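Much of the work behind modern protein science is quiet bookkeeping, done one molecule at a time. The protein below has been through that process, and both of its lines are reproduced in full.


***
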Amino acid sequence: MGRLTGRIALVTGSGRGIGRAIALAYAREGAHVGLTSRTGAQLDQVAAEILAAGGEAFAVAADLMNGAAIKSMVSAMIGHFGRLDILVNNGGGIIGGGAALHALTHDDELFEKNLFLNLTSAYYATRAALPQMVKQDYGRVIFIGSGHAKRGGGPISYTAAKHALVGLTRALAYQVPPTITVNTLSPGWINTSLVDFARIGAQSGIDASAARAIAMSASIQKRILEPEELAPMAVLLASEEGGGITGQEVSVDGGYRV
């Protein structure tokens, strides 16, 4: 306990799922946590959990599809806490589905929206946070990738964006001071509300149980991980002990398609 005592962390998409799990883990380790997503009610719930456990949280609702709103949100966090030590770019997902995301019929607007949500939004948040990290000569930037950050198989827009996050990680790591680390933490199949096996199965003409079985078979451990299983690695990457890890793509995925 206390590995992040006194640190200020901002976790995007922290109202549920992976973002919520990381935010709560950071609070347990002593960090003051900034929360953001589009849904204020979810943020209020996570903030209440942190406060009930004796931590400190500050929530700002923001739309990650709006670059100006992202920059404003980061500025508000820095203004509230006075510094920013850890940025976890967790917000993302898949917009659209079915034929609209297939290579031969991909909707052009959806392609750009998926790139923005999964790549450009992380750039905006990081670009807004870096000057403060450079000023204080300390920082941890973490992008949340995907099993599709290293291989194919997902919608082309989503897969391209997640691959690009790894490239962004490597490029940034070379261009920031050595006191700032930049890494991508990639999950595989995770049990969150965003993973709807009924919808996923319907796109292939199978039921939810069959879709879930296929997902489970894709990893060595033959299971779907829980969001909380990513939290220990997220803590390490954010901690002093993780200072020697930078420019890396690190997977916590049960051995997804190795």
Summary: Strands lie at 8-12, 32-36, 57-59, 86-89, 139-144, 180-187, 248-252.
